[in-house]
Amino acid sequence: MTSSAGSSCPSIPRRSSRRCCPAPGRDSQPLSALGDFQTLPLEIFQMVLNYLPVKDISMLSMVSKTISSRLINYISTSSGSRRLLLQDFHSPEIPGRKEGASILEHYKSLGLLLKRCTLLLPTRDRLKYVHKVLSGVSCFKLSGCASPLHCLGLQCYGVFLQILTAGWDELECHRVFNFLWELSSLARKVQTVVSSKPGSARRLELRVRLFCRAVLLSPWSHRSDSAFWLTRILKPWPMVNQARLLYIIFGPVSSLDGHVVWQKMIEGPTDESSLKGLADAIKLLYGTEAREWTADDVISLVDELSVVPQEWLMENNARLLLLSGNSICFTFMASKAVNGRAVELARLMVFMALVCEKDLYCMDWAVRMMQKVCKVFSTHWERNNFLQCLENTFAHMLMEMLQAVLAGEHEEEDGSFLNLFHLVNAQANFHKEILYVAMGSSSSS
């Protein structure tokens, strides 16, 4: 027993000595946390940071909590702000940086730096700190820039927030939106533009559009993220205001001053470029990524949109549905079939054939869509009534356009003859595709 105990004794003092007596030259915990930077005065440490790329400073922030704290202090200094908060938003390049490096890339790196520096803080405190850092940048504010159409400020703010919040869960992103919603007084400003007469608050409409697109919507690379933020923007409002707000954010704008063109859908047929933004937003809300929207919600939104600010030309309705994709197009038309609105449905179908002819879509698409819609009707009578309405609509529209041609003076700007030409071709090609289907079915049987 004595011999055994004695043989184990030498290990005891060695372990105890290691724990209690630091090795020569070793420093306390703060020194090991700062490493070689411990020997530098704070002013010299901050001067070193001025020469490091933002990405390297971001990596440095992950070394230890002590260094991260020093970096947070550096960011708050006047020299740190000048170094990091670049504000040359009206030029595509950052002075003094490598050729081709953009200010957007700079703010992505800054977003990552602040993300890492505030990693251990609660979400609310992180947002307060970030706001404190960025509060001096006027171009990040909804109405902060005198020339918003020629400014990259909001885009930089958007990519900054994208990097900062990447990987955050949905609850945290809700807090981010609520924070921005209150910070920018966005709720009050949106209330103004959706309740005022269209165009009466043109400058505010433009700023709401730019802020929502650049800060909340455009930066996201995943559809699920875009759907989340668009839902946050729209859902607080009644459906009629949702449609108005959707038009403000995604509708056509003037190429001269960027203001929303409210009469575009009412005064005459428009082109695909004017409707693409609205169609993409509708597809986003109708997709599986937008969990808070049902098919009925989206159909109601499209219905409301078609009377903003007044009832659209049916051709523009048809073009929007075509651009929105097969699923939403069929669902919209099927809802009219189910609700017994055969006359409206027939008119819409004729204009879809006209749009296919004008925009060079395959006419067999329109015929296949008609076949799918016909299957929705519960009785043969309802289906036959719809087909009769369809033919009557073709005939009625042809007569209307012919009368317009005969009554017109055929000036160069007058599109009556061209519209008649397109409609005649649309009817011929539409019926040609129907004959192909009918003859193909009869030959196969």
UniProtKB/TrEMBL annotation:
<dbReference type="InterPro" id="IPR056622">
    <property type="entry name" value="ARM_FBXO47"/>
</dbReference>
<feature type="domain" description="F-box">
    <location>
        <begin position="34"/>
        <end position="84"/>
    </location>
</feature>
<dbReference type="Pfam" id="PF00646">
    <property type="entry name" value="F-box"/>
</dbReference>
<dbReference type="Pfam" id="PF24467">
    <property type="entry name" value="ARM_FBXO47"/>
</dbReference>
<dbReference type="InterPro" id="IPR036047">
    <property type="entry name" value="F-box-like_dom_sf"/>
</dbReference>
<dbReference type="InterPro" id="IPR038946">
    <property type="entry name" value="FBXO47"/>
</dbReference>
<protein>
    <submittedName>
        <fullName>FBX47 protein</fullName>
    </submittedName>
</protein>
<dbReference type="InterPro" id="IPR001810">
    <property type="entry name" value="F-box_dom"/>
</dbReference>
<feature type="compositionally biased region" description="Low complexity">
    <location>
        <begin position="7"/>
        <end position="22"/>
    </location>
</feature>
<feature type="region of interest" description="Disordered">
    <location>
        <begin position="1"/>
        <end position="29"/>
    </location>
</feature>
